[in-house]
Amino acid sequence: MSGGKEIRSQITSIKNTQKITKAMEMVAASKMRKAQDRMEASRPYADHIRTVIGHLRMANPDSRVELLQERPEIRRVGYIVVSTDRGLCGGLNANMFRSLLTEIGEWQGKGVEVDLCLMGRKARQFFRRVDVNVVAAVTDLGDVPHVRDLIGTIQVMLDGFQDNNLDRVFIVHNTFINTMSQKPMVRTLMPVETPDADDLQTHWDYIYEPDASELLPGVLARYIESQVYRAAVENVACEMAARMVAMKSATDNAGKLIDGLELAYNKARQAAITQELSEIVAGAAAV
Question: How far apart are CA 83 and CA 94, in angstroms?
């Protein structure tokens, strides 16, 4: 058993670590509430524009828009991966990367090439070790992502799809379910999907002003930006929730370690006192 001095040093060190994890837990809880507000604010617009663009795909405009067209053969796909810049958030990133690697393996098994567009330092660090083509990366988005910071990365995938270099584009991010649960999600970004296709009429169209060929490319670009921005702000909310839970767990574990070490310290001190008393009694008996 370690001596009393060594155990006291360990207790002091763990208490200092416990103070740090407790402070990080409280900061993450405060930031999570603000991130949730931003996430809730972004969801209605992103959901509605996704529905509208899905309806456009089922409509019959005079001119066909490239972003709405399904490709007959898939030769190359792209993934926009939204991760965190910092760690200490449990298995949030690892779970998402694991599910993405499974999908990448399936595509590569079919002979389909994969391009990645990475958002967040953790994704950049992870995919350096994976045999995939990284075409763009952006880091340091902060706790409040801005669309202007995402546009360059989005444009790389948008141009690739419009130039027929990519046949399908997906977005990968964590979805906020509740404080204790965040789920990785992979959604098709291009070509656009129609969530309520069964409820639509067979032949119909919108009235466009100006012409559809002039209007739709800009609307579709806003659609892509809204989906990526929504994924970025939702991922921040997931990060803060996961960090809060991880730091609470670390704080609780530190408390258990301290209790165990204090018990060991008391036993060591009691053993030392008993040893001293035994030596005194033995010395007195010898005299």
Answer: 10
